[in-house]
Amino acid sequence: AAQWKGLIETYRSYLPVSDTTPVVTLLEGNTPLIPVPYISEQVGRGVKVFVKYDGLNPTGSFKDRGMTMAISKAKELGAQAVICASTGNTSASAAAYAKRAGMRAFVMIPDGYVALGKLAQALLYGAEVIAIDGNFDEALRIVRQLSENYPVTLVNSVNPYRLEGQKTAAFEVVDALGNAPDWLCVPVGNAGNITAYWMGFCEYHQQKYCDRLPKMMGFQAAGSAPLVAGKPILHPETLATAIRIGNPANWEKAIAVKEASLGAFNSVTDEDILDAYQILAAHEGIFCEPASAASVAGLLKLKDEVPSHGTVVCVLTGNGLKDPDSAIRVSNNAVKSVIPDLAVVAELMGF
Ligand code: F0G
Questions:
Q1: Ligand 1 centroid distance, CA of 320 (Å)
Q2: Per the annotation, does 66 bind a ligand?
Q3: Known binder of ligand: residue 153?
Q4: Which side of the chain, N or C, has fewer Cβ within a 10 Å radius?
Q5: Which residues carry this modification: N6-(pyridoxal phosphate)lysine (predicted)?
C-alpha cells in the first residue's frame, strides 16, 4: 500500500489549501476505528460499538488534525509565532507543529491542572509555557486579546482552520464503516471537535459517501457541564482536566450541531468517567486519557436509548500515556517486588 501522506494531502480537495500552501505535517490522521466487543456486549441488543482512537496521532491527541491545518495556514500567511490557551493537548500539538514550521509557540495553561505527559511534551518541543493562577476560560480570554494586539496567531479552535482539519476524522469514520454511524459519542470541552465532526459528516453526506447522518452525542464532565446546564460554569471542576472548561468557545456552534443532528448534551460524573477508563483498558486493551473515556461513559449511561442493531462510534480523543498519574491512581493495582529467585516468583504467581 502507498504510504499515508497526512490528512492535508489525503483530503486536499475538501480543505482550504492551495498548491502554494506550505504543508506542515507529521503524517497525522489515518487512526484506527477499533471494535470494542466487551462494551458492545454491555450495551446489548445487537448494537455494534467502535472507538475512533485518535490518541494515536503524532502528539497523542486529535488536536494534530486541526493543528496541521492551523499551522500550515499560519505559515502561508507569514506568521512567526502562534499562541494558544490549553488544558494540555492543544499546547503539545501547537508546540510540535509550530516548531516543525520554525515558529515560536506560546502556550498558556492553568497552573496545576495539566497532565504530566502533556506538559513534558510542550517543554521538550520548546514551547514557551506560561502558567496562570486561573482556569482555561481565563487563559483563553487573555490569549485572544494577545492575538488581537500583537503579531501572534491564535491556534485555539476559534481558528477556523482547526475545525477544517478536524472534520477529516468524520471522513475516516465513514470511509471505515461505509456509512455514518447511528450515534457519534464525543467528549466536549470547547465543542470544537463535535462541531468539526458534524461538518465532516455533512460534507460527506453531500458527496453521497454516506446516506445518513449520526446523532451527535456530546458528553461533559458533571462538574464542568455548561452545555448541559445551559449557562457558563464559573468554577469548572473534574479530574478529566482536558475538559475542565466552563465557557466553551464554540457554544453557538455546539447548540446548532445538537439541533441539526437531533443529538444531545449530557453529563457524566467523574466516577462514570473513571469506570469507563478502566473498562477500556482492562477489557479492551485500549489506553486513553480520562477525558476521552467520557464518550464511552456517556454511551454506557444512555445505552438503552441506542437503536437496536445500531452502530455507535465513541471518539477517544487522547492517549492514556498523556496522564500517567491518573492511570496509576485509578488502576487499583500495584507492582509486586520480589527477590530474583525462581521459586519465590513462581509462588507469587500462584503456581
Ligand atoms: N478530549 C481531550 C483529550 C481534549 O484534550 C479536549 C480538549 C477535548 C476532549 C474536548 O475537545 O474542546 O474540541 O470540545 N482539549 C483542549 C486543550 C481544551 O487545550 O487541549 P473540544
A1: 14
A2: no
A3: no
A4: N
A5: 63
Q: What is the rounded (10 degree) CA torsion for 274, 276, 279, 280? A: -110
- Are the CB atoms for 202 and 210 separated by under 8 Å? no
Q: Which of 193, 136, 137, 165 is nearest to 14 (CA)?
A: 165
Helix, strand, coil content of the chain in percent (nearest 5): 50, 15, 35
Phi/psi at 61 (nearest 5 deg)? -155, 170
CA distances from 132 to 71, 114, 141 (A): 24, 12, 12
Q: How far is the CA of 327 from the centre of ligand 1 (A)?
A: 19
Grid coordinates representing 42? 454491555
pLDDT by position in tens, the chain (length 351) = 789 999 999 999 999 999 999 999 999 999 999 999 999 999 999 999 999 999 999 999 999 999 999 999 999 999 999 999 999 999 999 999 999 999 999 999 999 999 999 999 999 999 999 999 999 999 999 999 999 999 999 999 999 999 999 999 999 999 999 999 999 999 999 999 999 999 999 999 999 999 999 999 999 999 999 999 999 999 999 999 999 999 999 999 999 999 999 999 999 999 999 999 999 999 999 999 999 999 999 999 999 999 999 999 999 999 999 999 999 999 989 999 999 999 999 999 999
